[in-house]
TrEMBL record:
<protein>
    <submittedName>
        <fullName>Uncharacterized protein</fullName>
    </submittedName>
</protein>
Length: 155
């Protein structure tokens, strides 16, 4: 079984989020941020899923989108719908989402500032049902139909 790694201790939440929640946060940030990484994420989705981003944005005024929480959720839902259509999949693939790194060392190198993460803090998860985003050594965002459970590694 293919797997990935993460450190739960640096997560800002204590449960596994939905794909919708993760995408909304990655694109727009939290309530204190207006737009976090909309251009980077959308450009990746345009390439990865061959999305017509002009069509996606046509429905929204960017100033209003950056300030209106309800519109941010609506945009995220439309984005998921477009991905599902392009991929020929159901929204179930976005029931849960996790950022995972391909190796334990990637987690430590990318997120263990000043030695703050050790290998014994890492959790192993199965790779998800769909690859949503890929940041190389910094991690991949996977979507899952069912809630992913940690894999117990034998010592």
């Amino acid at each position: 079984m293919e797997c990935g790694y993460r450190c739960e201790e640096i997560s800002t939440v204590d449960h596994i989020l939905t794909g919708r929640e993760v995408l909304k946060y990655e694109i727009f940030g939290d309530e204190d941020e207006s737009v976090r990484n909309i251009e980077g994420m959308i450009e990746e989705f345009k390439e990865r899923f061959q999305l017509d981003t002009d069509k996606l944005f046509k429905k929204y005024d960017m100033d209003e989108l950056s300030e209106n929480e309800e519109l941010k959720w609506k945009f995220t839902d439309n984005l998921i719908n477009e991905i599902c259509i392009k991929m020929g999949i159901s929204k179930e693939y976005f029931n849960y989402a996790l950022w995972l790194c391909k190796t334990k060392q990637n987690v430590i190198d990318c997120y263990g500032f000043d030695g703050s993460i050790t290998e014994d803090q890492l959790v192993t998860y199965p790779i998800g049902d769909i690859l949503i985003s890929d940041l190389g050594i910094e991690g991949q965002l996977y979507g899952y139909k069912k809630e992913p459970k940690p894999i117990e590694e034998e010592t």
